[in-house]
Amino acid sequence: MSSTTALPTSEDQRSDDSHLLSYPRFLKRILWLATEGSFGFYAWMTLLTALSLVGLNAWANQVAGGMIGTNMTDHVSWGLYIANFTFCVGLAAGGVMMVIPAYLYDDEDMHKVVIVGETVAIAAIVMCTLSVVVDLGRPDRFWHLIPGLGEFNWPVSMLTWDVIVLNGYLLINLHVVGYLLYMRYLGRKPNPSWYIPFVFLSIFWAISIHTVTAFLYCGLGGRPFWNTALLAPRFLASAFVSGPAFIILVMRVMRVTAGYTAPVGPARTLIQIIRVAMVVNLVMLASEIFTLFYTGGAHVSAAKYLFFGAHGHSGLVPWMWSSIVLNLLGTFLFFLPSAMQRSTVRIVACLCCIVGIWIEKGMGLIIPGFIPSTLHEIVEYSPSLIEWKVTVGIWAFGLLVLTVLMKLVISVFGGQVSPKEPTATT
Amino acid sequence: MTTTNDSSPTGDGSQVDGSQGDRSLPVLQHSSRRTAVKGAFATLGAAAFVAAVSPLRQAAKQTTAAEFMQTHYKRLTDEDKRQVIERLEAEVKQEHGVDVDIADDRPIPGTKFVYAINLSVCNGNGKCVEACHKENNHDRATNQSYIRVLEMPKGTMDMEHGNTTYSGVVPKDDKFYLPVQCQQCDEPPCVDVCPVKATWKEEDGIVVVDYNWCIGCRYCEAACPYHARRFNWKQAEVPADEINPDQSYLSNRLRPVGVVEKCTYCLHRTRRGKLPACLEACPTGARVFGNILDPDSNIRWILENKRVYILKEELGTKPAFFYYFD
Fold this sequence. Notes:
By secondary structure, chain A is mostly helical. Chain A has helices at residues 2-5, 19-34, 39-65, 80-94, 96-104, 108-133, 158-186, 192-218, 231-258, 264-295, 300-308, 317-335, 344-361, 385-413. Chain A has one domain (69-413): Formate dehydrogenase/DMSO reductase fold.
């Protein structure tokens, strides 16, 4: 995509090559660079590859033997895969919290590292797509979803909207990241008209991916636990915690392992955003809990099961309270002054919130939608070994993609930012 | 290709040819060893990849090219349908040694099928559940059926108090019984959510699934407020001598693994003028089925004269399924 969009910049070509040839060569070279590294790097990549393959093998077995290999049932018909999908959409959307300060508020320091957020979004979307594909009973019929070839039930089915917004978001970010890296590599100043419109589009698009994903659930009248207008706003608020927290971790890893030191400003801005977003998220959660429990009736039965257990079943209770404790602890830590420094507190706070939200948006949101079932039967669910293997595999593959992309960014940007160069920004 | 690129970490010769040559040449020996190591790792990784996906080869054998390429039911011509049905019948013959007859029953013009159950009469004996199980070639081991019966305490219509796993002698004095199956809604949420139009509402009101088009995302299962849909978590197993050979493409033929299915008001019977299997099996006469467009029909009289209850009416799904009381 980027190779063609980059084509018409017809300034002085210091090489005779057309971009059509030069862009693939650029990709080839940086991909080669991305596989160069220390022993630790190779060990990390080998580990991720091995875990990805374990996941792939588990999925292959699931396809061969039928989805009976999962612990899902007709009562709880979505499980860990869709839970993980929901979280990863938030991760992808969270990157926009770097884009907004960088481009809307012209935060110069954020501008220097905004590409990290866009890169995390790419890896997260890859994980989203995989999480949905492994949930399909007939992955061989995937082509039925392709507009033109299959039957695409747009605009009625929210799932088709999700297919559009997720793929669109992936393409936008691939274009922006690819274009900026390529220009940087050529030593040129990026032409704003070739990426600024896409950056602004990506801001709206990021909001849309998580809104549409919430609409998948909240539009279902038969599932009272999901059927709340607060779902999409809650999704966004939690995404603006988990996304930035994940990006802070990525930047820390880049600094420790590759010496890629970002300015101190961006992480501080992200933490300010997290502070606000997390408090908003918790307020909305409290509001939801109040409405459910004070009203009582049919709407509260799923929440009762989730928080306290019902009719002798309490499979989700430990999950949910872990999530609440982690979220509260993470929020508290983020408000400590030391979170503004490059401290351990900051890292622990990020980890707490990421895990807390992974549970809240995943196991704590998807599963109670099905318990009790629409006929008020209680059939519990906990993921099978195959489901865990596949999910770990998806995360390993996502991190593999992320590592390679980060290596690209580091090798192109290389810490060689010199004020004399015309391309010092981005 | 420009010269501002930093470091010069390129590797093998193929990488160098495009550059302008103002970069210091890489140390070839080191680089080629590195290339060899990378190549070895890549080979190892590729081999591990092939090993990891090997179970898929088994699965692929079970799907023929014709099945893979088969298009949506509504796009099939009559000739396509004939070939598809021939193939499906041959597959059953080969796998189970049974001759089945798969028809393509279409709606009868001027028909809108509606079901009603007399809750004053139903005694929870479960014969309908069993009849559905046999009629629709459901998996024997899991005792699958499109019908669930709730045993409810008298004095409430809140399903929260119901029990689907009751046992013992029925009817119990303090209970009544509420059979639930697909309500064939006029505003079916399951149809709306399907991303590939694998399920739709036919002219006679029956909501059907194209088992050869469904991708198995199970969004419809999440959307249905009546727990009417079932997913084939594994290949259903029915002993050869118990397979019901009177089948239809959109109803009770043997379903492939990994797709969703549902009650079709036994369209392979009802579109041929017979009654649904669950109705025929009911010993109490609680079940009434018919064409609501027929002003002289029994069902029409009941809906006009009895006290009628609609399940989860507040959701706006507009069921074509009614409960009534004497």
